[in-house]
Amino acid sequence: MNFTFSDHEKNLFQNMESALAQEKHLFVKGAFQAENDIAQALITFKQKLSSLGYFSSFNHSSSLEPVATLEMMRIFARQHPALFLGVEYGFRIVTEINRMLNESCLQSSQVDDSLVCAIAFCEDFVETDTKQSSINVQSVDDYFLLSGEKNVVINAGVAKYIAVYGHIDGKDTLFFISASDDSLDLVPIENKRFFPELAIANIVLRNCQVPQNMVLYPQQLNALISKVQYLENFACIACALGMIDKCIEITTGFAKTHQSGNKPLIAHQAVAFSLAETVTLKQTAELLAYRAAWMCATDDSEKIVMNQCAKVFCSEAAETIASQCINILGGQVFMDNHLVEQMLFNAKFLQLIGTSTHLARIAIADVALK
Amino acid sequence: MDFELSKTQRMFKKEVIRFAKKEIAPRVQEHEIKNEFDFDAFKKMGEFGLLGLHFPEDLGGGGADVLTTIIAGEALGEAGVDGGLTLAYGAHSFLCADTIFCHGTDLHRQKYLPQLISGEWIGCMGLTEPDAGSDVASMKTTAIRDGDYYVLNGSKIFITNGPIADLALVYAKTNPEKQHEGISTFIVEKGTKGFTAGAPLKKMGMRTSQTSELFFNNCQIPADNLVGQEGMGFFYAMQTVEWDRSALLAPMIGAMSYAIKQCSDYSKKRYQFHRPISHFQATKYKLANMKIFLEAARSLVYRIAWCKDQGQAVNHLEAAVAKLFIGDWSLNPINDAMLIHGGYGYCHEYGMEMLFRDNRLAPIGGGTSEIQKKIISKLI
Question: Which structural domain range is residue B370 located in?
Answer without folding.
Answer: 240-379
